[in-house]
Design a protein that fits this description.
about 375 residues, alpha/beta, Rossmann fold, 3 domains, 13-stranded mixed β-sheet, globular
């Protein structure tokens, strides 16, 4: 997603600081395009459901973790959470990722679980983050996840494949489909692309076995959970939190608890699908934010941009910059500016993980 399209899309979503709202004619055009897109999405899924197009099967069970919307649901932390749970119970897990944002267009063994072989920009920052934070879990990328899965099978014979961002990847058979919905805004503005963030119409959730409300707060989102259970009574509806767990300062790599940023003067920046989520997290941690610079999702930073960020931090009295682990990966995990950089780490946590795993294992045996 290039910067101009990113900003346009953000304006259509009503994002803050994304520039002036688009002209009514542009909105009308985007709405018409959403209708065309929706017809195509429905027809494509219909062809797979009716067997006109055949999904390919891998030699081991496949669990898909996907979205109904474009980004921002915590998919990558949830993939890590599930893979870690299965790994810790002795399962050999291989994650299959498209590798979006990476330069390589080939099937790539990013990690065999023992060693990480590639890093951005050759591979995308999300699969790299998974590989780096999940020792003992293999990560393979490629435009064809079936080919990537066969390569992982030939090399490692995994017990289980976890398909990263797979709800719309119908070319590959899935034994279980898990779809994540952000508890604060599960369907965005209710429109399909490009008018809104929906990749497919909401009734498509009927094709999933499990729905997970992420960033769930029982004090705020209980009515939404109840409504979702009523709308999909045959689905397992789970909840999960995505919480900061540590902050690491560079250069040096000193690790502190996330609470350490409280009242700390910081200038934040991030290139995410929903950068406002990161800003909200920092506000909840009571950081003294001197500014927030949002970049397009999967943005590759230039030296000039980093120099400008450091200069802005100095001008505004910020003692350090702060960003996300995904952005840190895009920086090749190097920092050479005079102003320190802090990296905030988050993790997804399921409510009742043991019960969830038992339920998923039962689903795999059906």
């Amino acid at each position: 997603m290039n910067p101009s399209w990113h900003n346009f899309f953000q304006r259509l979503q009503g994002a803050e600081n994304a520039g002036p709202p688009p002209h009514a004619v542009v909105v009308a055009g985007a709405t018409a395009a959403s209708w065309v897109y929706g017809r195509g999405a429905r027809f494509r899924r219909f062809l797979y459901t009716r067997g006109v197009f055949k999904a390919k099967h891998l030699p081991a069970p496949v669990i898909s973790v996907g979205n109904l919307t474009v980004g921002g649901t915590g998919k990558t932390p949830m993939v890590a959470c599930l893979a870690r749970l299965w790994r810790d119970r002795g399962r050999r897990v291989a994650i299959l990722s498209r590798g979006y944002g990476g330069q390589s267009r080939l099937t790539t063994c990013l990690s065999d679980g023992a060693r990480v072989y590639r890093q951005p920009p050759e591979v995308g920052e999300e699969p790299y983050w998974l590989a780096r934070t999940l020792p003992g879990v293999a990560v393979y990328t490629g435009p064809c996840r079936y080919t990537a899965g066969l390569a992982a099978w030939e090399d490692l014979k995994p017990d289980l494949f976890v398909l990263d961002d797979g709800f719309q990847h119908m070319q590959l058979h899935r034994d279980l489909d898990l779809v994540l919905l952000d508890a604060a805004s599960p369907f965005g503005n209710g429109y399909l692309l490009p008018r809104g963030p929906l990749r497919e119409p909401c009734p498509t959730l009927g094709a999933a076995q499990v729905l997970i409300l992420t960033r769930y707060d029982p004090e705020l989102h209980q009515p939404r959970l109840a409504a979702l259970k009523k709308a999909f009574p045959d689905k397992a509806i789970l909840t999960a939190t995505i919480s900061p767990v540590r902050v690491i300062s560079y250069p040096g790599g000193q690790t502190e608890s996330p609470e350490a940023v409280r009242n700390r003067a910081l200038l934040a920046f991030a290139g995410l699908a929903r950068p406002q989520v990161f800003a909200k997290t920092l506000q909840e941690l009571e950081a003294d934010l001197k500014g927030f610079q949002a970049f397009p999702d999967h943005h590759t930073y230039t030296l000039k941009e980093l120099h400008n960020l450091a200069a802005t931090a100095r001008d505004r009295g910020a003692g350090a910059l702060i960003t996300t682990e995904k952005d840190w990966a895009r920086l090749k995990e190097r920092w050479e500016e005079e102003v320190p950089l802090e990296v905030l780490t988050v993790e997804a946590r399921l409510a009742d993980p043991e019960g969830v795993l038992a339920f998923l294992e039962q689903g795999l045996r059906k």
